[in-house]
Amino acid sequence: MRVLVTGGTGFIGSHLVEELLRRGYQVLCFVREKLRWLEGLPVELCFGDLKEPETLRGAVEGLDCVYHLAGLVKACSPQEFLATNHQGTRNLLQACLEAHDPPDRFIYMSSLAALGPSLDGRPLKEEEVPHPVSPYGLSKLKGEEEVLAQAKRLHTVVIRPPAVYGPRDRDLYTFFRLIQHGIVLVVGFRRRDFSLCYVEDLVQSLLLASEGRASSGQIYHIAGEGTYSWEEAGEIVAETLQVRAIRVRIPTPLLSFMAGLGEMWGRLRSRPALFDRGKAREMAFCWMSDISKARRELGFRPRFGFQEGIRLTVHWYRKEGWL
Q: What is the reported pLDDT for 38?
């Protein structure tokens, strides 16, 4: 089996690459510059950019599967999100369709942000009408639409995880660091529940989508068991870190104001803000996934409970000197 992974240098992609290698796959990674977590791994490398179609053509020939995980999670503008997450996905699909020996399957890792938050407090199913609340979410939805539009010409599957955590993650790492310093950050004054997914469970779902009997054109929600509030998640992390932490509540208007300042500072440096207003809007809602379709059709079963996943993540952060 010969497969292509885009985004293999990242947090989730590197875990997928390692699991594919363990299973004996021949892995080709499409990368831009730095190898990061791929250093020393027995993979083929193809250098290029999703925004440059000519760099994609040679990478997609003679493949059993394409795992498309590459994408922007931070950008200076909505147009930058769209250029990579939407147009870049379209470019990759077009390269696959024009290949002399096209891939058998195309697995697209989207995000629950493409669908939007739960507005009535119930876990969301795949068939809900999308209502993204951030430029990132909109760009991932546009990417999904490109993938699903080709479902009759190419076997495509869309995987939608919520927030993903685990070793190598830098996004939720900030949450861990604050708790290490005795602060559980809570957004707003009402309970907000969300689903989470440990990275190895997400990797399992990507492999099930490519190796199983999923029909072309399907979307699957993937998450761990249960949902948690900011307070509950903070307590579990604090207990795992063996620290005492106090709750600090930030009103959502103040969070948006802080995000706006972050964007202004990012523009001055011509760099994406670490935290923008789109992310602030996302944090003001509940994000809950119904994974019953993935259970039924993919045979997906989360293997890592939240407490176990947090324990493994904290252990890795400490071993690497991050905490």
A: 94
- Tell me if 121 sits within 8 A of 286, measured CB to CB: yes
Given this model, what pLDDT does residue 237 score?
97
Q: Yes or no: say if 109 and 157 are a contact pair by the CB < 8 Å rule.
A: no
Can you give the pLDDT at residue 263?
A: 86
Amino acid identity, residue 213?
R
Give me the helices (H) in 33-191, please: 78-81, 89-98, 135-149, 173-180
d(C-alpha 103, C-alpha 91), whole Å: 15
Report the chain's mean pLDDT, rounded to a whole number: 95
The position carrying tokens 């989207």 is 110
pTM (two decimals): 0.95
Domain count of the fold of the chain: 1
Select from 164, 295, 294, 310 the least CA-distant residue to 238.
310
Residue 299 has pLDDT above 90, yes or no: yes
Q: Domain range holding 117?
A: 2-168+196-224+288-303
In a domain? residue 269: no
Cα gap 15→21, rounded to integer Å: 10
**Domain CATH number, residue 50:** 3.40.50.720
In the three-class reduction of DSSP (H, G, I as helix; E, B as strand; rest coil), residue 196 is classed as strand
The sheet with strand 26-31 has its strands ordered as 44-47, 26-31, 2-6, 65-68, 105-109, 155-160, 218-221
Q: Residues 154, 93: contact at Cβ < 8 Å?
A: yes
Q: How far is CA 195 from the centre of its chain?
A: 13
* Sequence-separated (6 or more) residues with CB below 8 Å from residue 155: 104, 105, 106, 216
126-179 residue pLDDT tens: 999 999 999 999 999 999 999 999 999 999 999 999 999 999 999 999 999 999
Burial of 215 (0-12, 13-18, 19+ CB in 10 A): exposed
- Please name which of 204, 198, 209 lies closest in space to residue 297, comparing C-alpha atoms: 209
